[in-house]
Amino acid sequence: MRIGTLASLTGLSRDSLRFYEKRGLLQARRASNGYRDYPEEAVQWLGYVRTAQQLGFTLAEIAADLPLLAEGQDAGPALRATLARKLADIDARIAALQSLRTGLAARLAETPETGASCPLRPT
Fold this sequence. Notes:
Helix content is 59%, strand content 3%. By secondary structure, the chain is mainly α. It folds into 2 domains: 1-56, Multidrug-efflux Transporter Regulator, Chain: A, Domain 2, CATH 1.10.1660; 65-111. The radius of gyration is 23 Å and the shape is elongated.
């Protein structure tokens, strides 16, 4: 299918599709007239890419998992491991943010509403 059709089916711009192709996330054959020709599976694959991005995966992480999703492979265990790693990363970031929030709240509580005291001095 041509790039315009793929853009319409996926809701992505042509520029986005070209970007994904440049990054190696999408492959097109070149027709004799030089136009890109995308396989039908590209629609489903791009749905996977967009879902993965919404779940916090970077394009580099998505590209690294391309071999896991190749036809004929049981991607279930590998995909579960990838999702579990991402969940652990998110939990670690949440814990770090909670610690940061606790420290900031403590400094706020120590800061008088008036006066020259600076809450950013080391404690």
